[in-house]
Every structure is written in C-alpha cells, then in structure tokens.
Amino acid sequence: MANTEMKKKAELIFIPSPGIGHLASALEFAQLLINRDKHLSITVLCIKFQYTPFSDSYIKSVLASQPQIQLIDLPEVEPPSQELLKSPEYYILTFMESLIPHVKATLQNILSSYPSSDSNPVVGLVLDFFCVSMIDVGNELGIPSYLFMTSNVGFLGLMLSLLNRQIEDVFNESDPELLIPGFSNLVPSSVLPDACFSKDGGYVAYYKLAQRFRDTKGIIVNTFPELEQYAIDALSDNQTPPIYAVGPLIDLKGQPNPNLDQAEHDRMLKWLDEQPPSSVVFLCFGSMGSFGPSQTREIALGLQRSGVRFLWAMRSPPTTDNAERKLPEGFLEWMEGKGMLCGWAPQVEVLAHKAIGGFVSHCGWNSILESLWFGVPILTWPIYAEQQLNAFRLVRELGLAVELRLDYRRDSALVMAEEIEKGLKQLMDRDNMVYKKVQEMKEMARKTVLSGGSSSISVRELIDNMISSKS
Q1: How far apart are the C-alpha atoms of 79 and 50, rounded to whole Å?
Q2: Alpha helix locations (H) across 88-238?
Q3: In what order do the strands lie in the sheet with 10-15?
Q4: Comparing C-alpha atoms, which of 15, 6, 64, 14 is closest to residue 38?
Q5: pLDDT at res. 250
Q6: So what's the pLDDT on residue 185?
Q7: Dist. CA 77–CA 49, nearest whole Å
Q8: What pLDDT, on a 0 to 100 scale, did the predictor assign at position 439?
Q9: What is the pLDDT of residue 420?
Q10: Residue 256: how many CB atoms within 10 A of its CB?
C-alpha cells in the first residue's frame, strides 16, 4: 500500500500560523519540497483561529491534489482573554502556547504509527515565526526544529537585534536611529513595527520569539539571495543558525477567495483586457488594510488629478446610495471607462495582467515578492505589522519602490491628494530608475528558482541537511 511505503520516507511536520499571509507561503514551500524530493512526506497541522475563519478551507483547497501532504486538524482551544487583543502579537503568541499540549499529543500519535524498528522518521518540525515555543516539544521527542520566516531577512535582523536589549526595553518613537545587522543605512525608529513600541505585550512577544530563533537547526526565509545577499551575509555568524533563502514562494494559481464571486472576477478581468498595456495602477492594501471616509476621499482626488487608469480594491466599495459619504461628488461618473472599484481582487492574477503598470501597496512581504515577480513597481503605503520596515528597505536599501510614505500607521495624519497625485505620476513614469531596477529584479527572481539558480541550490542544501540529521 502506498501509505505504508510513504511511512518509510522522511517526514516533516509543518505548523503554520493560520493568518493568510503566513499560510500562503508556508503551503507553497511544502509543495516545493515534495516536488523536489520524492522521499519526503509532509504533515500540516491545521490551526483553527476565530480571526481567520476560512484558513482551514484555504489549506484544503491548496493541497487537495497533493497525496504526499496530509492534514491533521488540531483541536479547537479556548481563545485567550480579549484583554490581550491590545497587542495582536502577544495575543497570537499566547494562543499558540495554549496549543502546545495538543501539538505534543498529535506528534506522539504520529510517531507511534511507525513500526518501533524504524529510526525516528520525522526529520523536522517547520515552525512559523509565532510557533517557536513548540521547539521544546520537538526537543522532548527528538525532532529538530526549523524556523520558517514568511517575512524577509531584514526583519529577521531586527528580531535578532532585540537580543542585545532587555525584555523591558520597549522602543520609543523619539529613539535615535538604529544600527541593525542586515541594513546598510541607519534605521529610524519611525519605521519599526508597531509591536516594538507596545507596552501591552507586543514588545515582550517579539523578544520572547527572538530568544528562540537560535534554538533552531536552520532559518528558512521566503526571499532570494539576489534580493537580500547583504542582509544574509551580515547575519551569517556562529550564533545564528544557517539561513536558507528558498523564495520567492508565490502561489501563481491564486487560490479562490471566498469573498470574491465569479461574476465580479470575470468583470474585473474583462475590464483589464480592454485597457492599454502598463496603463493601470492597482491599489490594494492587504487582507486587513482599509481606510476611513476622509482618507478614501483623498485617494479618489489623487487618482482624479493624476489622470491614471486604476483598479482599486476597497474591501467595501461604495454603492450609489452611500458614495457621497466616501467619495468626492461626481467621482463615480468621472471614472467611467478610466477606473474600476471592487471589493476583493485576485491579486496574483491582477499583477500578472499586461494592463497593470504600478501597484499602490501596504508592503506586505508576499505582495512585494509578487510585484517583483511580475515586474510591477510599488508606491509604498505601509499600514501595520512590519510593513513600515519593508517599505524603508524597498526604497532606501534596495531602490525597488517609489516612496509615498515609509512611516504611515493606522493613526497617522491624512495623506493628502497632492502627495498621492505626485506619487502616482512618479510610479507610472517609465523613465525612472525604480522601474528599470524592478525589471532587472524580475529576471533575477525567475532565474533563482530554476535548476542551478541560487534559491534552488539553497532548497537542495536544506533538504540534504534535514535528511542527514535523521541518521
């Protein structure tokens, strides 16, 4: 029976966070590994989380055709106290820690299913950033752990730099510029993630997570050497486990979003088909990015004044009844033929479309990698998590994006129409250096994953490391 045969192979246990930004690259990585090595099988432990209700259906839809990957649902647990939601990072860390007994029981169950004559066939736990407390379970059961970073090596450098501070040493926005390994520029405190300033547990959560990074056997990052070689070299020391740059991991098929109906999807792509090549700006701010009426109006005015064609994913687009509360008077009539508003957009399909010439983005790492893969330059509008740091690196370190804001946050002052208009015009200027650099990086991104490419070599080294650790 195929299943028995599979039991003789090396097995990896993936424990991804349920957030869609974390799941997408983790599942792409799982598929990449089994495509590269027929001796591997993978078990994904699925976590149910009230704030990501469709994450388990997403996992099942991605992996439906992958017999070498099996799924096990972890039991649902009581969520932490609502009080902890003052810091999302601390809340998630606490939630993950509450799953430890269930993870241990599940792993014991998996191990007991193998004949006792076999040496331990589970060669590694692949743990999401928020799941590193499960390293202790791995150690207890004789299974090495690997950290899987859905963000980049620059962010990894920030996390490791926290270990030079104290656990109570929360950052202040007035702090002087920082020297962070992996950055060639001094980093202003204004672009650090929200959690760094959080006295409600966010900073403590980051510190506790960072303390465990060096207890892993390797750090796997969704990036590629050509993009972040400087940062990789800066972190390659005796204290840091080997870094494996295995990206860009992109779901090119684009899994169906339960919030997007087929008719809307088809209408969007038909509209894009009718636009000239590289003429449309795509505005999309991630699964949690949305703006109030005042900021929405400024964006609309900026679009109007710039004259660019646009596709704007607003999450809750205005209807004809409430448009005047959210948009300038006459905007819907003006945009006929020039622009389109939608709720959710199939981001990968949109960025791949020949009509798209620029991307106004929240600078989530998955979105950045997708934009580079398709050669679409970004105008930076970070909102939450580590997006400000990503924007800073893209603009100041790598020269791969046009700056709108680097330090915008949810409570920031409005970005005015004039500033947006100027940014849009710069974004769509085909003579600017950013556009040329993005095209070069697009070529590198595509070469790095081919056989003999640097990312491909890194994946092979990682698999060899995992399988040899078994013996």
Answers
A1: 8
A2: 88-98, 100-112, 135-141, 153-161, 202-213, 225-235
A3: 69-73, 40-46, 10-15, 122-128, 145-149, 219-221, 243-245
A4: 6
A5: 94
A6: 97
A7: 9
A8: 98
A9: 98
A10: 13
Q: Residue holding tokens 């003052």? A: 86
Residue (of 409, 340, 343) closest to 381 by Cα position: 409
Residue 382: cis peptide before it, omega within 30 degrees of 0: no
DSSP string for residues in 207-230? HHHHHHHTTSS-EEESS-HHHHHH
Alpha-carbon span 46 to 58, nearest angstrom:
10
How far is it, in rounded angstroms, from Cα 72 to Cα 74? 6
CA separation for the pair 254, 347 (Å, rounded): 8
Segments of the chain scoring below 50 in pLDDT: 1-7
Q: Which residues pair with 341 in a beta bridge?
A: 312
Separation between Cα atoms, residue 100 and residue 133, nearest integer Å: 8
Measured CA distances, 304 to 90, 144, 339 (Å): 41, 55, 10
State the pLDDT at residue 118.
65
Q: Mention every residue, 6+ apart, whose C-beta is less than 8 A from residue 229.
A: none
Other C-beta atoms closer than 10 Å to the C-beta of 430 total 10
pTM of the model: 0.95
Q: Rounded CA gap, 401 and 380, in Å?
A: 7
- C-alpha 243/C-alpha 236 separation (Å) is 8
Q: In angstroms, what CA-CA distances link 173 with 162, 170, 177, 205, 391?
A: 16, 10, 10, 19, 17
Closest C-alpha to 36, from 70, 68, 1: 68
- Show the tokens assigned to 174: 């007035």
Decide: 185 and 397 in contact? Cβ < 8 Å.
yes
In total, the chain counts a number of residues equal to 471
How far, in Å, CA of 169 to CA of 299, rounded? 38
Residue 61: exposure state from Cβ atoms within 10 A (0-12, 13-18, ≥19): middle
